[in-house]
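Bumping my old thread because nobody answered last time. Still need a sequence for this structure:
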């Protein structure tokens, strides 16, 4: 809910997703979240959100009805670009974002064939913990897109960088 450039972080991520013609959009939230309904989105309450990201990925994937693939994005990464999401979409199979240290992370895209595995995630186990075969790693055009706001100091750094 923290604001950056006049909008909550989650809304910036949502607007980036809305710039792409996805067949479904799901926002996974904690039960007491102040995030309300948003046109074109299915709001999924995750009773286990405090246990970690894995529970939210599983809840979101279970809510999907009619799609061949899913992109998992994080609401606290407000600088991810539409162009980066489009590069993930163009990949075949599983593709993660490549971080500057070579590690894999979000956003990431997964074909329907791995949805059952994603639905088993729990706690802090993210999709990187699964055996998903040959996953592609796709770096964003600018390292800054990987800015992740986990602490107040992260937000302060982002605001001071402009």
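Sorry it took so long. Here it is:
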């Amino acid at each position: 809910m923290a604001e950056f450039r006049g909008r909550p972080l989650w809304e910036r991520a949502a607007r980036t997703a809305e710039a792409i013609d996805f067949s479904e959009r799901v926002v996974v939230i904690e039960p007491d979240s102040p995030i309300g309904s948003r046109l074109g989105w299915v709001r999924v309450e995750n009773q286990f959100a405090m246990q970690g990201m894995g529970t939210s990925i599983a809840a979101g994937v279970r809510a999907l009805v009619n799609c061949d693939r899913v992109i998992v994005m994080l609401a606290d990464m407000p600088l991810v670009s539409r162009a980066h999401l489009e590069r993930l979409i163009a990949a075949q199979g599983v593709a993660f974002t490549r971080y500057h240290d070579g590690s894999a992370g979000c956003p990431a895209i997964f074909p329907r064939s791995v949805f059952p595995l994603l639905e088993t995630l729990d706690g802090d186990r993210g999709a990187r913990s699964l055996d998903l075969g040959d996953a592609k790693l796709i770096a964003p055009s600018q390292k800054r897109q990987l800015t992740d706001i986990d602490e107040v100091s992260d937000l302060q750094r982002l605001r001071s960088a402009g």
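The two ends are 19 Å apart (CA to CA). Let me know if any region looks off to you.
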